DNA sequence: TATTGTTATACTCTATAACTATA
DNA sequence: TATAGTTATAGAGTATAACAATA
């Protein structure tokens, strides 16, 4: 086995542990328990990319359609998204944010990410640059 | 709000989404369903740091003690760890890997991380270097 | 009284399989 | 038949609260 292959295996191992621990920390950091991190991620994606079908949303978030159905049902119950029939395709549904969700996202951007933002502020600028690049690479890895 | 603060907030947002999607992808990548990713992470930590108490293991993995109890009970049932009384403190228990676990970890290092290793091999060397640094930074963020 | 670990309980997150409705 | 979405069901993962044993 080549040196590069060995290094890559070690990186895979360390990266996996780091991502698991970091994501646990992020989940547990929640203060407002009404909207979960999964819900918030779906809302963020809707704001970023605009209205879309449940299937598209599931693909964006890398979950299966039934999982997204549950999220959407919960969000609709909280008045954070609307479900409207697709104009031409009767099978499809269009999910969109309500004004309440917009306000919630603005609030979350300040409150909920406060912990992470605070931690990031304590890092060196070069470290933030590394994470900025790493976020893009991880999205790429999650995607393909 | 300063430019740096705005950038940090945006980084917090993007990093959170990237880590969530990436960790979902990692969890779903499992082929061998007998040992879960959570179990594997605990075993990896034991191999890396040696025998320790359930409480220490929970702290390492950033979970609460009852959560680790469940993991340890499952692993013991599979013959992958042993629970022995602490020599001097009757309250404590020492968790250690069995030879079966050592073999499993060796196998997993090849098989289970195959997907991630393969994806990492496809990256540019500079991208791997970024992830190597990012893994350390995320561990630091998860820790404090 | 403080610490370690466990039990009891419940909730979140996610999946697969089966079903319905529309194309 | 194929696609989009949902319902039904189940399992993994994790938490908080209460308890037991030991220091």
Automatic annotation (TrEMBL), chains A, B:
InterPro entries the record matches: HTH-type_Bedaq_tolerance (IPR052526), HTH_MarR-typ (IPR000835), Tscrpt_reg_MarR-type_CS (IPR023187), WH-like_DNA-bd_sf (IPR036388), WH_DNA-bd_sf (IPR036390)
Keyword Acyltransferase: no
Gene3D superfamilies linked: Winged helix-like DNA-binding domain superfamily/Winged helix DNA-binding domain (1.10.10.10)
Keywords linked to the UniProt accession: DNA-binding, Transcription, Transcription regulation
Any one Gene Ontology molecular-function term assigned to this protein's record: DNA-binding transcription factor activity
Domain HTH marR-type stretches: 8-140
Superkingdom as given in the UniProt entry: Bacteria
PANTHER family listed in its UniProt record: CONSERVED PROTEIN, HTH-TYPE TRANSCRIPTIONAL REGULATOR RV0880
Record's protein name: DNA-binding transcriptional regulator, MarR family
Source organism per UniProt: Blastococcus tunisiensis
